[in-house]
Design goal:
homodimer, Arc Repressor Mutant, subunit A, Rossmann fold, two-stranded antiparallel sheet, 9 strands
């Protein structure tokens, strides 16, 4: 049944959850779809429609219970659990990812790092062991991981994605500047600031008086 | 007229351009929407429809001229120019952004960095001067910038976004874990790996045999 929920709806739920968590920190106990929408530049109708996929929330004219809706969204998204993450690639970007402090408080724990540089293998980065990339497959079979983060160069990325998927991983966070191919039952999210900027220049280009 | 092009279409164009550039590097001169679609996990019909917003490309049954379509997409998106970028925030994340080598080859040049830490102000990072955040507004009025990258903590981000927009910037790349409010004529893209992972756990949670 839930199979028919559009991916764009699923992608908005973490944004709602984050806003609700911020409201809860501010001491708010109830929020209307109007107020929540204004915080997020989403229409109230959109919020109500998105949430309607998962049941009935809030009372007519009363708004949503902040903590109640937050708990429900966390349950829907699986944010009430710990998720095991591995990182492949320990170049400059991989290093920044390994040292990023924002994953663990949200339940995403990097349990292993893989790199092919002998100078890195065997080290600890942010208290996580760096393994030889050659050990990726055997490690993952013995230590199942939920999410794989790919931070290798573009030319090596598809092969890494394939190895992660073959080892049973069903969620890939890809930082390499390419579009990985995966089977339909594998989720992929691409993090690419260059693509993000390239999708904005269309608009600022149009806004210029010269029209060029 | 082009005002009616859906944002999702614009967001796919840089992905097409990147794939075409890779094909050109491989020596390919012609590509069908079928082949391009397979590379990108997009249907051929979707590609043809997206491109149809901008005119007629390719010949029936002959496919697209790789370099011709690439040049056209680069012109549409404004990728054939240089864009001036400023970075606000030089914490661990800002440092990684400042040192990232992938922006400049794509035409995005970081021309100034702003931070409020006196220990950083006055330094050069990747040959770019670090200014005091207090100078942000006056600097931008004298040195117009096209895109602002926000890499400050969540609690400080909205104020930074407001200052960038007030100084005339119409495109914001936001790394802070919050949803900024901007006027309708300002483009914003959010880079948030935690949200990306949170939107995948819904799917891997469902895939587990326990159904929990």
């Amino acid at each position: 049944m839930t199979l028919e929920i559009p991916e764009v709806v699923i992608n908005r739920l973490p944004v709602y959850a984050r806003a609700l968590a911020a409201l809860a920190l501010d001491g708010e106990t109830v929020v209307s779809s109007q107020t929540l929408g204004e915080r997020l530049d989403v229409t109230p109708a959109q919020i109500r429609k998105d949430l309607s996929y998962f049941g009935r929330f809030g009372k007519q004219g009363r708004g949503y219970n902040v903590l109640g809706l937050l708990a429900k969204l966390r349950e829907i998204l699986g944010l009430d659990r710990k998720w095991r993450v591995c990182l492949v690639g320990l170049g400059r970007l991989g290093q920044a990812i390994a040292e990023y402090g924002g994953f663990e408080p949200q339940g995403f724990q990097i349990v292993a790092i893989f790199d092919s540089d002998p100078a890195s293998v065997g080290k600890l980065v942010n208290a996580v062991h760096v393994h030889d990339s050659a050990e990726l497959d055997s490690f993952l079979r013995q230590n199942p991981v939920d999410i794989g983060i790919v931070a290798v160069p573009a030319h090596a990325a598809q092969q890494v994605v394939d190895r992660l998927v073959n080892a049973g991983i069903r969620a890939i966070l890809n930082y390499a500047p390419m579009t990985p191919h995966v089977a339909r039952d594998v989720a992929v999210r691409n993090i690419d600031p260059v693509l993000a900027m390239q999708s904005m220049t269309f608009y600022i280009k149009k806004a210029e008086p010269s029209g060029k």
